[in-house]
Amino acid sequence: MDLQTLKYAEEWISRQVDQGEFPFATLKVYKLGQGVVSNFSKGFMDENETKANEDTILRLASNTKLITAVGVMICVERGLIQNILDPLKEYIPSFANMRVKGSNTFGEGTVKAKRDITIQDVLTTTAGLSFGIAYNQYPEFRDKEILKTMNLEKYIDMIAARPLHCHPGERWAYSSSWAVLGRLIEVVSGKSFPDFLQENIFDPLGMNDTKFYVEEAKANRLASLYTKKDRKGIVAALGTLNSDSKFDAIPQPVRPGSNGKLKLVTTQRLNSFSDKERLLRVPNGGGGLLSTTKDYLTFMTMLCDGGVSSSGKRIIGQGTIEYMMINHLPDGKDIAQMGGDNFGGITRKGQGFGLGGAVITNPAIFGVNASVNEYCWGGAYRTFSWVDRTAGVAVFFGTQVITDDIRYRRVLRNLVNSALMEKSWPSRLARL
User: Fold this and answer.
1) With a threshold of 0.85, does the pTM exceed it?
2) Which fold has domain 3-63+200-430?
3) In angstroms, rounded to a whole number, what is the distance separating the alpha carbons of residues 388 and 381?
4) Does domain 73-192 have CATH number 3.40.50.1970?
5) Which of 11, 130, 187, 323 is most buried per CB count within 10 Å?
6) Angle (CA) 263 48 58, round 5°
7) SS3 (DSSP) at 277
8) Do 363 and 347 meet the contact criterion of CB atoms below 8 Å apart?
9) Which three-class secondary structure state does DSSP give residue 200?
């Protein structure tokens, strides 16, 4: 990569922080053959004006999903899961005989699902599952007594007891699929979901700051969380299984130095990520991990390098990674054609879905300077990551702000990928 051109990405991030679009931002870029070519940070992670850096602990939210998907595919490699086309009910019986709601002439009642949910459906979030339970929309999920004894098995059985929103494989819709995948890992491995990730991904990669909870000794490194000053619906974004749903009652002062654009949602002292016992009982495979820019780029670098850690430890096979990073949506459709266009406020035309994350199927239609099969996903608090194995690039961007605008992801991709030098282009173009 041309390091001088890459500086434009860092300068753009710096301007966004100065203008109050992000409270702080971190960027780390890896290029095969060059190593880490950018390790940039700008801004303060909290109200004490602690400078953000690659060791600042971030709420990953949906960036958790890529890690969960790799965990599932490790199980496939070991024969613990026979095939991703297997019916999910063979591993989690509560998903047998699923019903679909609103499918009769009048849009009422339920009908029998046309077919069983497969593991591939869950990995591509086309299973027809709801996001409802994860957002506390059901009475039992607000019952403190029930929550005291809740575990991942019970949680997933609650999801399975609800009718599907559509027939399996017919629609792409964000859902609680990754929570189901966490339970699948527990069933086939005989280990808790957190223990499996720790033993098979985090420990071998040296991801010492990646967990479902914040260790007490590291609490001062957890960044504060912000939202745009005029944004509403904070509880909808934060009222998840792993939070206390009280954020609307927390005073939300405007952050100094943000041009009046940002306000505080929660600090280290007002967060629910220190309840280790509860978080490990119901680990959220779709959004529960905390990590750092340093740790997460280590994970993405492993994917870029074909499944091997920097020390030479094999985490997952290269063939498996390549299989994950192709479009698995039915008939080669993109997300838009599967009903997910404008998800996150941007068009999804030209973007399909692999196993656990999105893949670009047509960069021209998607409108981004990127390779076919670039694999990516981001989080609700605006973390974002991608790996482009064709160009040999892995990237992680970190911040902590709730906003509906994710157009920055396209800008960031264009800026970083513009730094690719001529020798990267023949192989990238060959994929088109």
Assistant:
1) yes
2) Beta-lactamase (3.40.710)
3) 23
4) no
5) 130
6) 65
7) helix
8) no
9) helix
